[in-house]
Amino acid sequence: MFLDAVSREVETPIEFTNGNGNGHQKSIFSPWKTWEPSRISHHGSVCCELAREWLFNTDMSSLNGGSLFTGPRWLRHRFEWGPGTYPIHWCGVLKKRALDCGVHAALAHEVFVRRGLKSFRAQLVQEFSGAAGSQWRSNWEKNEAMTAWIDEDRIYHEGCAVLSANKKIKVWDPSAGWWIDARTTSGYGSVLALRLSTREQLAGIRWGSHELRSNEWITLS
Ligand SMILES: [Zn+2]
Ligand SMILES: [Zn+2]
User: Fold this and answer.
1) Ligand in closest contact with the CA of 93
2) Which domains, and CATH codes, for the chain?
3) What is the four-CA torsion angle of 38, 201, 11, 37, rounded to 10 degrees?
């Protein structure tokens, strides 16, 4: 949830094409269409390098020889989910008690990559409720964090995908500390749309019964 790439245009009604390249109707993901995954900044010096080393060492000892595909749930225990502001630096992360999902996801991604797995940042639109949305809004406002990730009963959320055999992915929700069920595409907590952010262009990625392409929002239901 980093405002870096967010233009003010999202607040004014603009015409755009939907995922199929035609039509002008508003998509589920339209408020966040231009958002890029959140980033942790680096001071370019030893303070941040030490924080990264701490992350990798802690992950290795938590993993304790277990499967590399184990979700790094320890991150969620160490840092609860809550409001945060940007920029945030690596060395600053360690001083926090709570992190937002963007930072959680950035950390989990680094951990998966360091384990030697192929990981992608995942951007999600999830459905909750208007009541949940307004509760989060007031909590985030209180902490002077931005609230543009909340759109009534829908929210923008971040996680990360891990690639396994046959172009199949699993999607880790680092703020919840679980793998997201690809079959839940309606109702409270469901994932309505997903975008994988990847450096190389990939097609035919499978998440459950969904087919995904790199860097493109896909509506799931
Ligand atoms: Zn630093
Ligand atoms: Zn989130």
Assistant:
1) 1
2) 39-219 (3.10.620)
3) -10
Q: List the one residue out of 170, 181, 122, 54 whose CA is nearest residue 62.
A: 54
Q: How confident is the model at residue 133 (pLDDT cuts 50, 70, 90)?
A: very high
Residue 9 CB-half CA count within 13 A? 11
pLDDT tens-digit readout, 13-63: 444 444 444 445 689 999 999 999 999 999 999 999 999 999 999 999 999
Exposed / middle / buried, residue 64 (Cβ in 10 Å: 0-12, 13-18, 19+): exposed
Closest by CA to 110, choosing from 62, 44, 163, 55, is 55
- Which ligand sits closest to the CA of 125? 2
Q: How far is the CA of 2 from the centre of ligand 1 (A)?
A: 18
User: What is the phi/psi pair of residue 115, to 5°?
Assistant: -75, -10
Q: How many residues does the chain have?
A: 221
